[in-house]
Amino acid sequence: MEGKYLLKNVLLEVGFEYANDDVVKTKTDLFCVEIEHGKITNIMPNQPTADAVDAQGNLMLPAFKDMHAHLDKMLFGLPWQAVSATRKSVKDMIAYEQKMIPTWLQTSVERTEMMIDFLQSYGTDFARSHFNVDPTSGFESLKNLELALSNKQQTFGSELVAFPQHGIFYTDTLPLLKEVAQMDIDFIGGVDPYTLDGSVEKGMDVITQLAVDNDKGIDIHLHEMGDSGMQTIDFLIARTLENPQLKGRSFVSHAFALSRLDEREITLVAERLAEAEVGIVSSVPFGDIIMPIPTLRKHGVQVLIGNDNIQDHWNTFGSGSMLQKAKLIAELYGYSTEWQLSRVLAFATYNVLPLDDNGDQQWPKVGDDASVVFVAATCSAEAVSRISSVKSLIHKGTVVF
Fold first, then answer.
1. Based on the structure, what is the number of domains in the chain?
2. Which letter does DSSP use for residue 151 in this model?
3. CB 158 within 8 A of CB 68
4. Which CATH number do you get for residue 23?
5. What is the Cα–Cα distance from 233 to 223, expressed in whole angstroms?
6. Percentage of the chain exceeding pLDDT 70
7. What DSSP state is assigned to residue 58?
8. What CATH number does the domain containing 304 carry?
9. What is the C-alpha separation between 138 and 176, in angstroms, rounded?
10. 190-203 residue pLDDT tens
C-alpha cells in the first residue's frame, strides 16, 4: 500500500502515570493516523467506524534500525553450518573466506534479499551494512549488495561501510580501498590494525585520511583487548578532534578493550569519546565480555546496536530481532522498571522514543517519516520485556506486511 491512506485503532503512548514520583504505568490511547507520500500527515482522535486500515489496537512504534550488519556475506539461505572449532583467529577466518567467497558470491544477491526479508519480519526497515573489500572479493560484494538493496529500495533503507576484512596491508587491499572510497558509500571501515597489519598508526592513518579526503564517516571493527585496542581508540579520538568534520561520523564497532577497564578508566575514556563525538557500535556481547554501556551513555557517548552475525562462519547467535537486543541490554544491566524499560527501546529505534524522559509525547509528529512498526504490546516497556511479536511494518509509507 502506497499513496494516501488512513489507519484507525492505532495505539500510541501519551504519557506516564506516577505514584510517589515513580513511573508505574505508561498511558496510551487510540488514534487515527493519516499517511501520504511517505509521511505522517495527520494524527486524530480515533474513529472506530472510519473507512480505514484497522491497526487492531496494536502499539505503533518507530521502525527498528540494525546498526551493524554484514548483509553481503551471511550464510543465510545456505544449509545450516555451525562455527568451526578449527578456525580460532581472525587470520584463520581470512584464509577460509579467501577459499569460500567466490562460491558465496554466486548466490549473494538472492540470499541478501532473503536476509532483508528476515530482518523486516522483526520490524527492522534500515541497516548499516559493512561489505567486504579485499583482493578475493574485489568490488563484487559491493556490486551484489547494491543490487539486492536496489531490489528492496521501496521497503528497506541502508548505509554502507567499506570493510577491509582481510586487512589493509596483510592483503593488498589498499588500492581497492582507495578506489571504493570515491564511490557512493557512507563510511570507511577497518579491522584490528595491530593484529592484522602490525601497526595501529599505519592502518588508522590510512582509514582516517581516506575518510577526510572523501567526505566519509569511519566505522572500524576493533576486537583487540589491552594496549593495542586502547591505542586504536585513542588514535581515532585524536584524529577526530583534529578533523571536526569527522565528529558524529566516527564509530568503533565492538571496542572490546573498553570491557577490561575499571570504572575510573572507562569514565575518562567516555568523556573523551563524548568530546570527540566518537560513537560505539555494539552487538551487546556477553559471557566474559560485558561492555560498559551504562557508563558510556551516562557521559554522552552515542551507543548504537546491531545484530552483527545471524548465520555466518563467525557466529550463529544473532536472532535478527532488535527488540531481543534491547531486552538483552535490559537484562544485562538491570533495567527493569517501567521507565527504564521504556528508555531501553531507544537501542532498537536509533534513539527515537514515543515519550521523552519526562513523559511528554515527542513521537509521532506530523511531518515524520511514516516508518513504523506495530507490535502486540500495551506499551514500550512491555514490548522490550516480552519481545512482543511484530504484526506489521511500514517503511516510508509503503506497507511491507
1. 2
2. H
3. no
4. 2.30.40.10
5. 11
6. 100
7. P
8. 3.20.20.140
9. 7
10. 999 999 999 999 99
pLDDT tens-digit profile of 109-156?
999 999 999 999 999 999 999 999 999 999 999 999 999 999 999 999
Residue 14 resides in a domain: yes
Locus of grid cell 585524536: 238
Tell me the C-alpha to C-alpha distance, in Å, between residue 142 and each of 147, 171, 281.
9, 18, 22
**What is the torsion angle, in degrees rounded to the nearest 10, for the CA atoms of residue 377, residue 379, residue 380 and residue 385?**
-60
pTM: 0.96
Q: Cell digits for 295?
A: 557508563
pLDDT tops 70 at residue 305: yes
122 and 268 part of one domain: yes
* Cα gap 313→135, rounded to integer Å: 19
| HEC assignment per residue over 226-286 | HHHHHHHHHHHHHHHHHCHHHCCCEEEEECHHHHHCCHHHHHHHHHHHHHHCEEEEECCCC
If one compares 82 and 212, the residue with the highest pLDDT of the two is 212
pLDDT band at 1 (very low <50, low <70, confident <90, very high): low
Q: What is the pLDDT of residue 286?
A: 84
Do 17 and 139 lie in one domain? The reply is: no
Say whether both 153 and 170 belong to one domain.
yes
Of 298, 320, 342, which one is at a domain's C-terminal end?
Answer: 320
Alpha-carbon gap, residue 131 to 24, rounded angstroms: 44
Helices (H) and strands (E) in the chain, counts: 13, 16
Q: Give the burial class of 117: count Cβ atoms within 10 A of its Cβ; 0-12 exposed, 13-18 middle, 19 or more buried.
A: middle
Average pLDDT over residues 64-73: 96
In a domain, 330, yes or no: no
Per the structure, the complete domain to which residue 37 belongs is given by 5-57+352-399
- Residue 401 and residue 398: Cα distance in Å, rounded? 9
